[in-house]
Amino acid sequence: MEGSESDVVFGAFDVNPQLFLNEVLNAVDGKSDSAFDLCLQQATEIVRSGADQSEELVRVSVLSACLTGVSSLQYLMKGVLDKRMSMWEKYCLQTCFSVPDGFVLPNSKESVVTLLRECCPDDELDSEIYSLRNKLAAAGREFNGLGREMSLLEQKSTASKNFNATVAEVQHMLEEPSVHQMFQELAETASKLQKKVAEMHRERSNNMKMPSFSSQENHMVPYKGLPAKIEDIQEIVSILNTQS
Asked: Which family does it belong to (predicted)?
């Protein structure tokens, strides 16, 4: 669409592309000029503060050289910057602010408002916002669930490490020679006690029944057993004491 027609379209929407571009270009030029002005000011202060009265000629020469160098840099940079900004301005006018062919301008401002509402209806925006909120809430719940699972895994890992450490410690203790010797002594003690108990059981079995005579008749009285002998008890105690 030609320039005059584009201006009419943008004017209907209260938009002035060239004014916007000019403001941007002026802002860039202002920032660039301010930066180099600051450089000149700082260079002047540094040169003046670092020289004595006897070095006045040297100071003037150095200051002149600094000002000339900064001015040259500013000139070179301004040329490059102007070229780049000119290309940017051309791109914006031809692409960003280009009105497509066949665009029909609404008859009234109310039609403009209606067109904007049709392009961006509130219902669609509300539905998109609602959908995004639901997705965000679902992501938050998933994040919390993953956090809990990670905490449980850390607890299980800690418990597993503690268990493995305990098992390793017990295994190390069992591998010590003193532990093997203790088990052997316990086995020998158990064997001696078993033999002694078997002997006492045989003696008790032999004495289960003893003959008892009375003046009326001759009959057998069951023998209920006798307590262990003191010698047997002392022998068992001595066996236990030797292993303690």
From this structure: Belongs to the mis12 family.
pTM of the model: 0.39
218 contacts 167 by C-beta, under 8 angstroms: no
How far apart are alpha carbons 14 and 33 in whole angstroms? Answer: 31
- C-alpha 105/C-alpha 13 separation (Å) is 10
DSSP per residue, 79-121? HHHHHHHHHHHHHIIIIITPPPTT----SSHHHHHHHHHHHS-
Question: How confident is the model at residue 213, as a pLDDT?
Answer: 47
Are 82 and 97 a contacting pair, CB within 8 Å? no
Nearest to 210 by CA among 223, 197, 219: 223
What pLDDT does residue 61 have? 78
Q: For the chain, which residues make up each domain, given as ranges?
A: 3-120, 121-175, 177-243
Per-chain mean pLDDT for the chain: 76
Q: Reduced to 3 states, what is the DSSP secondary structure of residue 224?
A: coil
Measured CA to CA, the distance from residue 176 to residue 174 in angstroms comes to: 5
Amino acid at 222: P
CA distance 6 to 12: 10
DSSP codes of every residue in 172-209: HHHTSHHHHHHHHHHHHHHHHHHHHHHHHHHHHHHTSE
On the question of pLDDT at 37 being above 80, the answer is yes
Closest alpha carbon to 11 in 100, 92, 120, 112 = 112
Average pLDDT over residues 142-161: 89
Nearest alpha carbon to residue 225 among 209, 214, 236, 213: 209
Q: Assess contact for 110 and 19: CB atoms under 8 A.
A: no
